[in-house]
Amino acid sequence: MKWFLAFLFAGSLAAAGGPRLFFSRAFPGSVPPYLQVTLDSDGNAEYGEAPDDDNPLKFRLTEAEVRQVFDLADKLDHFQHPLEAPAKVAFMGTKTFRYENGAQKTEVKFNYSEDLSARALLDWFERMAESAERRIDLERAAKYDKLGVVKALLELQASMERNRLVGLDQYLPMLDRIAKNETYMHTARARAAGIAEAIRSGPAAPAATESKPKP
After folding, report:
1. Is residue 58 a contact partner of residue 77, using CB atoms and an 8 Å limit?
2. SS3 for 26?
3. What are the tens digits of pLDDT across the range 32-91?
4. Is residue 40 in a domain?
5. I need a labelling partner for 103 at 20 to 30 A (CA). Which of 68, 77, 135, 156 fits?
6. Does residue 214 belong to any structural domain of this protein?
7. Cα–Cα distance between 157 and 28 in angstroms, integer?
8. Taking a C-beta distance cutoff of 8 angstroms, is the pair 195, 138 a contact?
């Protein structure tokens, strides 16, 4: 009986694991010089700026966002084929896509790809990274630099208006905190409240398309 229960427990853990996608970009001289993003099939995402980052920023994507990201990974056959473009171009950082599902693990590295699905997936991961960076900037300003909160909010709003953000609900706790805290400037409180209202009432940001991806 104990063996049977252990078998069921192990099976449930395996089922709960599910597939996971990993992305990293190593580009010395850029800011940050390294970043990585992971996303599992349940929508749990993590952003870090070091391979061994022990305190990654965690956030969630919507079901629709997750589906589009994993659909692109499916189109790329889970990274079992090269993606590097044959033409020589300037170095723009080493990108890594990796697919993990239980014992299965496949990855590909490239500098620049002409594959539209690869470029669209790269755009998704770059949007996840930008989303995390805007949140980090806002939380840091709210904690250490109250005069800089307005600037952080303006940058967040600009990224949002350019449809560069995903998992918009992740910003609501901090926006609400700023809007309700009288120690912040009125301008910051009003802008935070406005962004929060736009997130709650507005449609989800349009998904990245394969027709106009970033290199």
Report:
1. no
2. strand
3. 999 999 999 999 999 999 999 999 999 999 999 999 999 999 999 999 999 999 998 999
4. yes
5. 68
6. no
7. 28
8. no
Tokens of residue 161, six digits? 């208006």
| Residue 83 belongs to a domain | yes
Total domains present in the chain: 1
Structure-token pair, residue 200: 């709650």
Distance of CA 16 to the CA centre of its chain: 21
Query: What domain range is 124 assigned to?
Result: 16-201
123 exposure class (CB count in 10 Å sphere: 0-12, 13-18, 19+) = buried
Task: Convert 49-102 into a string of H (helix), E (strand) and C (coil).
Answer: CCCCCCCCEEEECCHHHHHHHHHHHHHCHHHCCCCCCCCCCCCCCEEEEEEEEC
Q: Which helix (H) or strand (E) holds 47?
A: strand 44-48
According to DSSP, the β-strands at 20-26 and 94-101 are: antiparallel
Q: What strands lie across the sheet with 20-26, from one edge to the other? A: 57-60, 44-48, 34-40, 20-26, 94-101, 104-110
CA angle centred on 37, ends 121 and 29, rounded to 5°: 95
The gap from C-alpha 213 to its chain's centroid, in whole angstroms, comes to 16
User: How far is residue 60 CA from its own chain's centroid?
Assistant: 9
pTM, full prediction: 0.85
